[in-house]
Design brief:
It contains 3 helices and 3 strands. With about 80 residues, the protein is an alpha/beta fold. It has one domain. A 3-stranded parallel beta sheet has the order 1-2-3, sandwiched between helices. β1, α2 and β2 form a beta-alpha-beta unit. The radius of gyration is 13 Å and the shape is elongated.
Length: about 80
């Protein structure tokens, strides 16, 4: 689906925790997430920590939307 949306001229960032799956399906811009049930947070951490995690990952994804890439790119995130 990511490839079809991009073919329509709409930039897409695939956020997932299974990077090999994203590369296999052909996503061009990939941002790693935390886990399958909680991709942008960790409920075992305080709300402030969760907010920082989410804010950072979404910020990386928004930055990725503005970049032109020629090949599949996995964008770096802070751990």
């Amino acid at each position: 689906m990511v490839k079809e949306i991009e073919r329509a001229g709409i930039p897409v960032v695939h956020m997932c925790n299974l990077i090999p799956v994203s590369t296999t399906v052909g996503a061009n811009k990939i941002v790693p997430t935390i886990s399958i049930p909680y991709p942008l947070g960790d409920p075992a951490t305080p709300k402030e920590v969760q907010w920082k995690l989410r804010h950072h990952r979404v910020g990386v994804a928004l930055d990725a939307l503005t970049q032109d890439v020629e090949e599949q790119t996995v964008f770096k995130v802070k751990i």
